[in-house]
# Entry
Amino acid sequence: MATTINRARKLRRIPMEQVARRAGTSRGTIHRAELGDPNVRLRIYLPALEAVGLLDGFGVIEDAKGDKIAMELLPSRIRRRKDD
# Structure
């Protein structure tokens, strides 16, 4: 994920400061995220991915065939287990 943010930022010619501002964090944190620092929290990565345009369409599923199959597999009722 770290190299993805770095590559996307450079390809789009977005300065690190601008990504940091859009993500609501500091330039240093974005720099550490791009280096893959394990101390950078996940809550920093999502806004950073959005800032470089990598979350466009995230969560949009356009698989009509897969959705149809999934809908057929769903139970009509979900009952509470006796041990709950």
In short: Residues 63 and 69 are 10 Å apart (CA to CA). The chain has a mean pLDDT of 82. The chain has one domain: 2-73. The longest helix spans residues 2-11.
